[in-house]
């Protein structure tokens, strides 16, 4: 089979393929036999339809189109193997299919053109002698004090109060009934949906309720009833009350204050596995110092990654871009499902397309970063030891002993992550990293951020819990959420 190659932009290769006469004859005869076995034509049994009747009833164009669909795919596979083309993704037919149908004749040669994506060639302009800035996260002793205060609050004893008015920091038990400040057109008060409660316990701290409610309770005495003016914020989720003024009739039934435990060794034993307060403080200090170091290292890696994106020259094929976009949408879908959302109902086709469009710029950056770091690894012979990798795989799988885990997929992901870490550490050692105060770089970045999609924002909310560990790519190999499947359902 005659094949002519031509390199195209965006890492594509054009293939001009000449199908030999014998190949076109074989394909035509094969398709006719399949039609004869499967097509129902009145007056004839399956497989017994005369050849000319079959062609007449089906029409030459229909038969040729069916022949060409298989013939083009088969000849492309042969051409790719014959020419040792490292193709990725689906081919793109460059010739007009209608023209090919019109030109096709069994037993005659036929030439068509197609293009396939191939892995791109990447060149890193410079990866040594660079200077980048990264924010340094410094340990703050106040973090230890804050944790201890939080432990005190959680283990405090609530002591009843009846000899003074309510004040900030107390715990109040109240009955309340809320109505909008503005009556309806008949002058009747409008009850607030869900705006009434009995024996409702609330901490008298700023931000615990809508504006004005807490301030209204502060100063009341147990047994007192009072009308309190409050306001719903514009962003309140109930649209019928958002941004509106309200009046709450509040009765303070009980008042308690927190009696905090002493910060001593007994306290440390109650809230931790340590015997002394000094040991607990030392443990917290060590933890926060390690976290500060890890965040500084992460900021350094991020700064180096951004610089390497600027240094890479690569013509990315659309196949890889689409895969990366779909992967990012899948990550968002996973976070939404972990929040309890039914993603197949929530993610409409319109929203999915919006997510894909917004993900594309970041996908391009991530791909450039991957190719840049891969090129550095190749140039500097940086690799992950197999023993080290298998240990990581075993440790990961042990965490999911009750689930079915794709070990090969986990190994691949962990190897990619470990190699990326090694390359970034190497870059940090062989370039200049200027550490700057925390916030000095992120503030500038935030000014340029645009509004994200609702789905992405909802997904990001899943990481707001500081106690929750973010899902890694390896975790996603276990917990599978197929955004492509969602897309198919919507389409």
Task: Write a concise synopsis of the structure shown.
With 491 residues, this protein is an alpha+beta fold.
Hey, roughly how much beta strand do the residues contain?
15-25%
Taking all Cα atoms into account, the compactness measure Rg is 34 Å
Judging from the principal axes of the Cα atoms, what is the shape? extended
Helix content range of the residues, please? 40-55%
Report low-confidence residues grouped into runs of 5 or more.
447-471, 479-491
Largest sheet: 5 strands, antiparallel
Query: What is the number of domains?
Result: 3
Helix tally? 17
Mean pLDDT: 87
- How far from one another are the termini? 39 Å
**Number of separate strands:** 13
Walkthrough of the structure:
- Strands 7, 8, 9, 10 and 11 form a five-stranded antiparallel sheet that branches. The chain has a four-stranded antiparallel sheet with strand order 1-2-4-3. A two-stranded antiparallel ribbon has the order 5-12.
- The protein is α+β, with helices and mostly antiparallel strands.
- It starts with a strand and ends with a helix.
- Strand 1 and strand 2 form a beta hairpin.
- The C terminus is likely disordered.
- Helix content is 48%, strand content 20%.
